[in-house]
Specification:
Radius of gyration: 18 Å
Strand order of the largest sheet: 1-4-7-8-13-10-11-12-9-5-6
Strand content: over 45%
Number of strands: 13
Order of helices and strands: EEEEEEEEEEEEE
Number of helices: 0
Structural class: mainly beta
Shape: globular
Length: about 150
């Protein structure tokens, strides 16, 4: 569904004519490792988004059923390219089936990127931003649920 939202207003009445582009859609997300597609089969692979003006709210869920992944920084595809100079922050709502304690807990999407980088916490008190989730921690039952809001042109 898409269209133009007009006559934006408040409880007290219309405050102006604003035309915002509105679009609701789906896409098929996938894991990448260091910018390369991986060899994997998915039990679940669903992505949805709502675009209003220049903001896009994205949510996705993926569960692997088989994988063959080497080491490298784990990334997830996005349906749009982030254009804001400020990074978009990834909320990982659920993660299961990872091979060790290095499961994704957060992430970010930098300007000009169409993938999000997944990050893990550490027990040594260092910043999470210093620790990418390695593709080698994925297992054949790894599952994630992720939310992110992007700014696009």
């Amino acid at each position: 569904m898409s269209g133009i939202v007009g006559s934006t207003g408040s409880r007290s009445g219309v405050i102006g004519e604003t035309e915002l582009d509105y679009e609701k859609g789906t896409w098929t997300p996938y894991f990448q490792v260091s910018g390369s597609n991986i060899s994997a089969s998915y039990a679940e692979q669903v992505g949805g988004y709502i675009k209003i003006g220049k903001l896009v709210h994205v949510n996705l869920t993926m569960t692997l059923s088989a994988e063959s992944i080497s080491s490298g920084a784990m990334q997830v595809s996005l349906p749009f390219t982030q254009t804001s100079a400020f990074p978009a922050v990834v909320n990982v709502g659920r993660n299961t089936g990872f091979s060790d304690a290095d499961s994704p807990q957060a992430g970010y999407c930098g300007s000009g990127a169409s993938v999000m980088n997944l990050l893990r916490g550490t027990s040594d008190g260092r910043s999470m931003l210093q620790h990418a989730v390695g593709g080698d921690v994925l297992s054949s039952s790894s599952s994630v649920f992720i939310d992110i809001t992007l700014t696009i042109d």
